[in-house]
Structure formats: C-alpha cells, structure tokens
Amino acid sequence: MTLCLCFNNTAAQDSASSDALLQAARTAAFDHKDYPLAKSYLFRALEKSPGYSDVRIFLGRIYAWTKNYDSARMAFHQVLAARPDYTDASVALADLEYWDDRNETALAVIDSGLKYNTASEELLVRRARVLNAAKRYAEADVAVKKALAVNRNNTEARSLENRIKESSAKNKIGLSYDYVYFDKQFADPWHLASFDYTRNTGIGSLTGRVNYANRFTENGVQYEFEAYPRLSRTFYSYVSLGFSDKVGVFPHWRGGFSLYANLPKSYEAELGFRYLKFTDAPTWIYTAYLGKYYKSWLFGLRTYLTPGTFTNNVSASYGASARYYYGSADDLVGINVGYGISPDDRLNSIQLDSKIRLISYKAGVSFKKKITKFSVLGIDGSWFNQEYLPQTKGNQYQVSVGWLYRF
After folding, report:
1. Which CA distances in Å does 217 have to 167, 178, 179?
2. Is residue 272 within a helix (H) or strand (E), and if so which, with residue range?
3. What pLDDT is recorded for position 313?
4. Is the pLDDT of residue 312 over 70?
5. Which helix or strand (DSSP H or E) is residue 190 part of?
6. Does the N terminus or the C terminus of the chain have fewer Cβ atoms within 10 A?
7. Distance from chain centroid for Cα 386
8. What domains appear along the chain, each with residue ranges and CATH number?
9. Which residues pair with 197 in a beta bridge?
10. pTM: predicted TM-score of the whole model, two decimal places
C-alpha cells in the first residue's frame, strides 16, 4: 500500500508527523496529480507545524501550478518574512513571478536572495533566465557564467548559456572553407567557401550568406537567407531560402522551415521540412531532432525522411552527435556519426539529386575554441563511405575551417 493511500484514514492523518504528511503530499502531487489531496495533507501539516517552511513552500508551488498566483505569493512571502535568507523560498517566488511575466519583480526577488547566498546555482541560473527573457543579454551572460563557475556541470546553465550566446551579440560575420578529397568517385577535389552576416533583431536573428563552390571542375555561387524568429519563451522557428543559377554545382532552389522547442529538464526538440529543387521534380524532406543537455554534454539524435518521388518507399537518414563543452559555449569538442546524406549539409546535399538512394555512412569530429573575446575558430574533419554506384563504394574525406566574429 502506498503512502498516499495510507492517509485516507482520518486517525492515521491525525497521528502522522509533519514530515510524513509532506511526503504524502509530494506523492499525491507528483505521482497522482491530485492537487486537492496534496493540499489537504499540507494544511494538516501546517496545523501541526505552522513554521515548517518546506511545507508552506510546497503549498505555494501547488498554488502556482494551478494558476492561483495570489495564494502562492502569500505563501512564499510568509516564509521569506520569517526567513529572508531561505534560498528555496526565493527560488519558488522567482519562478512564480517569471511564469507570470513579471520579470522585474522576479529579478528583485532573486537579487534579494543572492545577498544571503551569493553562490547559489539555482538563483544565478534564474537570474540569467529572467535577464535573457528581458533581452538584457550581456547581464544574462554574466549571470550564467557565474553559475557555471560554481558548477561547470550545471545542465540547465549550460543549455541556457548557448541560447544567451546566440542572442547576446547584435552582429556576427562568419567565414569558412571546406576541402573534400575523393579516393574513387571523382578525380578532382571539391572546394566550398562561404561568407555570412547575421543581425540580431527584436524578432530574432537574420542571416545573409553567399556560398562559392568548385566541383565537377565547375564554379557556382549560391545565395541564402535564414531567419530564427522567436515565438515565445519556449518556441522559436527556422526559415531559410537559397537560390543558385548554377544547377549541378548547387541546387537551383533550397528552403526549409522548422519549429524548435526548449523543453523542461534541458531537452530541446525540432520538427520541420527541407525543400530541394534541382532540374526535375522537387524533393521534400522531413526532419525531427531531439537533444539533451547533461552536465557539460549535449547529446543529439536527428532523422531525415524523404517520401519516395519515384517509388512508394520512404528513404531515411539518421545522425547522432555528442558535444563536450570544456569552457564557454564557444569552447567544445564533438563527434558525430550518421547514415545517409543530410539536406542541411551544403557541401554534400547536391548528391541527393538522384533517383537511386544509395548507402552512405559518415563519421566526424569537430573542435571550437574562443580565441579572443569576440572571435571563435572552428575545425571539423569528416569521413564518408559512399555507394556512389550500385554495389560500388568509395571514400570521401572532408576538412573544414571556420571563423566567427561577434560585434
């Protein structure tokens, strides 16, 4: 018999300790989502122990989860009036004000709590989260770095740092160069050079990019536009469009849309589609991604699904990746493995212009290092084993160098 069921008997409730009643309330709330029952246990506990702070904080949490914000505030303020240095109460009240879109009030609560505990990871992460929501990115970056200085394996702080980093600079420019060598498939190597400029705006980031490629002994240029509009604190989107008049070196048209979500427990997810138009009918590709931050790691799984244009079959590609952040959000090492060709791979997506779906395997490593306050160096290496004709395979080796500058 569970603890929650044991307290159905009135005599058992009367004799139970406040600790046991608090545990029963947690069981009712978390395991059974029975908030009225949980509150009844907490009221009984407060009758026994009116000054039991953890009981009153949990009662306030339940009020907050059920949108009874005034009752929640009363509970949290009652605890802080008696114990202004109690971090758990400051955290709970800050969460409530943040959920209620009262960023300045939440910030005041957090700063008050930090006076008593300057190294509180929970308060520092919440300060960064609130400042990020208020678009005070420089201050948010300072707060999240303090949290990581206390504990570099704080998963929530690591996830938040990456989001703040993308929003903190108004402008970014990037340069990259890719070199590809084939041992069998093509006699000449491929070259790709890119330049892009990104501007962060009130609705999200906007990027313009120019790609130059030399492959199949031909030159071509592609023009791209990308945007990441923010929709809410949880959701943002990705929109892209690309054009080239040199079909064969690049797709004639490429585009895409995705909806991203920053989920609880440091998960992130994406659903979307990609569009490629070569010379024949366009190719529509659907993608899904799930990522998870764990301490200083980011793990990711992605798939691309392509409904058959010429057959009833659906072809699929898969990828798995892991990144380890050894410093800031710009300091990382990563590995990736995959099956199939990604439409987001600007260098290799041209090989999707085929009626025959051939087998391809990939493995790669990546390295990024912040070399000055505003610039980042990136180096990637990849190996592909591709079936470029039925039952005929070859290897492809790719080296990429990139430089990013924020200002």
Report:
1. 40, 16, 14
2. strand 267-277
3. 63
4. no
5. strand 190-201
6. N
7. 31
8. 3-167 (1.25.40.10), 169-406 (2.40.160.60)
9. 173, 208
10. 0.80
- Tell me how far apart the alpha carbons of residues 299 and 76 are, in angstroms, rounded to a whole number: 36
Residues of the chain above pLDDT 70, percent: 94
* pLDDT score of 212 more than 60: yes
DSSP 308: -
DSSP-derived secondary structure for 356-390: S---EEEEEEEEEEE-SSSEEEEEEEEEEEEEEET
Which residues partner with 99 through β-bridges?
none
Q: Which tokens sit at 42?
A: 């907490």
Which residues are CB-contacts of 310 (< 8 A; sequence separation ≥ 6)?
A: 355
Q: Which two tokens stand for residue 399?
A: 């080296």
Identify whether the C-beta of residue 75 lies closer than 8 Å to the C-beta of residue 55: no
Q: What is the pLDDT of residue 1?
A: 38
The structure tokens 């005070």 sit at: 136
Give the Cβ contact number of residue 280 at 10 Å. 10
Q: What is the DSSP string of 339-356?
A: ES--TT-TTTGGGG--SS
Q: Give the residue from 361, 366, 364, 365 showing the smallest Cα distance to 394.
A: 361
150 close to 133: Cβ distance less than 8 angstroms: no
Confidence of residue 350 (pLDDT cuts 50, 70, 90): confident
Residue 337 has pLDDT above 90, yes or no: yes
Q: Which amino acid is at 367?
A: F
Amino acid type, 135: K
CB 157 within 8 A of CB 125: yes
**Which amino acid appears at position 110 of this protein?**
I
Comparing 283 with 357, which gets the higher pLDDT? Answer: 283
Contact 325, 346 (CB under 8 A): no
Concatenated DSSP letters of 200-257:
EETTEEEEEEEEEEEETTEEEEEEEEEEEEB-SSSEEEEEEEEE-S-BTTB-SEEEEE
pLDDT of residue 310: 44
